[in-house]
């Protein structure tokens, strides 16, 4: 039976298709116990984790265990990986009466990172079997959750605008899907083609609202971030909202009339009335306003 347990444990410890680690164990110390599954002997000890790569899950550490007769197995270095919630590691320990021998471990991180438990085994060169133990931590840690973030990218088309889109800041609100309350509000700087990238977004289902100075708000809905960057979130903004109230109305006509004929430096110059971005307020801007009159932006 011990041999069977050992074979199973070693099989589980072989490299598999890795998932990103959910936990960071670096610079943590744990006290632990192990019970021989055949004889029931209890061992006390400790596990230290030194460094961990939070991308690959690879870590280094050190283990010390004390058998019932308090003859220490000694400290030995270990290395392994955290694969999602599963921890696998191994090393070479000095076992009394056996000398140096391979030791392998596997377990899971549980209870919100405050406990680890699983099985360990060492190779008995005399009997040529794996001696298997159940093990669990009794205090220490905890492991720290790794919060991964991703990006949302796409293109913002500024309707009826012939100027340099790089000069137009676009305010983006990241919201929970179905909500109008922003989680984050950021100002996006577009490239020359209108492309943008919103970084540091956690997994979730979002609405992304876009508003620029004299354009109406548009909302890209149900943008789902699930373990990867999201691209192709494109919107087209309607021009003509000179007064910034998210509607194209007679108030915008009034603002354009007040700025009509002006250029930068004139006393009545209003950059938001220069709808087409040619650095003057002309009949072309009136044409944009007439075209989009009555339009309303999204909330």
Describe the protein in words.
This protein is mainly β and 299 residues long. The protein folds into two domains: 2-145, Lipocalin; 150-292, Sandwich (Immunoglobulin-like), CATH 2.60.40.4130. The protein has three helices and 17 strands. Strands 2-3-4-5-6-7-8-9 form an eight-stranded antiparallel β-barrel. It has a four-stranded antiparallel beta sheet with strand order 13-12-15-16, with no helix packed on it. A three-stranded mixed beta sheet has the order 14-11-17, with no helix packed on it. The model is unreliable at 1-17 (pLDDT under 50).
Radius of gyration: 32 Å
Q: Distance between termini?
A: 66 Å
β-strand percent reads over 45%
CATH architecture of the largest domain: Beta Barrel
Shape: rod-shaped
> Structural class of the helix and strand makeup?
mainly beta
Estimate the helix proportion, in percent: 10-25%
The number of helical segments is 3
How would a crystallographer describe the biggest sheet? 8 strands, antiparallel, barrel
CATH topology of the largest domain: Lipocalin
Which spans have pLDDT < 50 for at least 5 consecutive residues?
Answer: 1-17
Q: What would CATH call the homologous superfamily of the largest domain?
A: Quinohemoprotein amine dehydrogenase alpha subunit, domain 2
Query: How many domains comprise the coordinates?
Result: 2
Give a short summary of the structure.
By secondary structure, this protein is mainly beta.
